[in-house]
Amino acid sequence: MDTTRATTLDPTTERLASEVADVRASIALVHSGVATSVTLTGLRFGQQLAQSLRKAAASQGVTLEASFWPEEDGGDLRVGIIGRAAADSPTAANPTADGAPATDD
Questions:
Q1: Distances 22 to 25, 43, 68, 71, 104 between C-alpha atoms, Å
Q2: Whole-angstrom Cα distance, residue 7 to residue 11?
């Protein structure tokens, strides 16, 4: 009798599992010091994953910054070192009302 059974996940579950694995791998990469930041683009569950994994990432000295694409279903997720601003971070890219770069003071 064949006891092996193929487990087939629906496409949404497969996508979520893949994105969780990608975010966890990116956190590990930044935490290890191999990279100072990683940007994952085109994530369907980026905002939800940032909320769910933010505490675990912070415990490793890593921050998660999600950006949402309002016209599409998904967004990007930047994984970086806590306290280190990136040139492409939302605060660097969005100047204040007077046109000066935003600061984190």
A1: 5, 10, 18, 24, 29
A2: 12
pTM of the model: 0.71
| Domains defined for the chain, CATH in brackets | 11-93 (3.30.1370)
Beta bridge partners of 62: 81
Q: What gap in Å lies between CA 56 and CA 61, rounded to an integer?
A: 9
Mean pLDDT for each consecutive 10-residue tract of the chain (105 residues)?
A: 66 95 98 96 93 96 92 89 63 40 44
